[in-house]
Amino acid sequence: QGASSLDISSLTRQTGLTTLDNGFVNTASTKSAITFIDGDKGILRYRGYPIEQLAQHSSYLEVAWLLIYGELPTADQLATFDETIRRHTLLHEDLRRFFDAVPHTAHPMTTLSSAVSALATYYEDVLDPNDPEAVEASTIRLLAKLPVIAAFAYKKTIGQAMLYPDNSLSFVDNFLRLNFGTMAEPYQVDPIVSKALERLLILHEDHEQNASASTVRLVASTEANMFVSISAGIAALSGPLHGGANEAVLTMLARIRDSGESVSTFVERVKKKEEGVRLMGFGHRVYKSYDPRARLVKESADEVLDGLGVHDPLLDLARELEQIALEDDYFIERRLYPNVDFYTGVLYRAMGFPPRMFTVLFAIGRLPGWIAHWRESNADATTKIGRPQQLYVGPAERDLGR
Ligand code: ACO
What is the pTM of this model? Predict the structure, then answer.
């Protein structure tokens, strides 16, 4: 399945040569058994299982187990996993007060990354990467508490009281209630929203050595604990060229709508590479055909918006943009297709999430993948500290002259 490869380390030692690979376009940083992608054929598999099957028939926690432990759980294993995660949702009360110190204007991704680092400070005795029990405890704590932190970060931005988790609810329903429930009224989860969110989370669970997973592995390679490694992954995900693209897509669509500019004029500006103008949600380092996740999200978009009785003109705009781009030579020659972020924003918006929460939802989805990468790297005795080379292009030796 894999392409041919060359282990460069012995060659480097023998020849003293260094390869420059800007953006790691060609250099594999690791071997991995978690996720397989064929970017030309548009194939994505977690531990060998096609994403289409998992999105259709699995739950977020079942896929999390699969990614982390390598096999599908038995019914008993899944039930115990689910129950253990439900029992670990509470945050220390002092950590709850962490949110008092964050301005309500803070981007929730920044809050999320900071709070996950802060979470590590409560578990100093159980952080050792070489202690299997600590690794299990960190896995459960992160899976259970990240959604709560995420919902707290959201409540902070809208000035509402934070709710305590309701552990009688499923993972996804608990999360929805923490975001949209209030102290004033009981909250009823809409099954259409719950099902759609579960599906979107599954689609995001892993994507091999992207910028955030690679960041997690790089930090893990220093034997740093799982919490701070994941916090670094969240920071990497926040950028608009990575997970932040889902928010950027919606901003782009809203700008086009508000400016009154036609879609084709906007596409012309993209092609001229006007400063800061890209077709957000298009293009991918690995997929040179339609991103299979984008196909599944696009299918869900109609279903969910119809089910919720929402008509969103931004979805019409997105469809028009896609249609024009897919027939345009600029995009055809460069093999630019919609990626997972192109349609997700429209769906999140229909569910009631504001754009600033979109990347946070991505982070919750991606967490099992980051944990799987951290654990794979940590368990591999051949892992070396990640330490890229550079080609120095600065001044030769100079004399301070004093
Ligand atoms: N709009 C317009 N042109 C584009 C786009 C785009 N979205 N993406 C790539 N191109 C063009 C580049 O300008 C370049 O053109 P050139 O050959 O004339 O110089 C060519 O396509 C190749 O692009 P690169 O930037 O070299 O591709 P790279 O693999 O480095 O970047 C990336 C991939 C970052 C995803 C890029 O396609 C992009 O910026 N897309 C928009 C942001 C986005 O949607 N990110 C989400 C990615 S998926 C994810 O992280 C979950």
Answer: 0.93
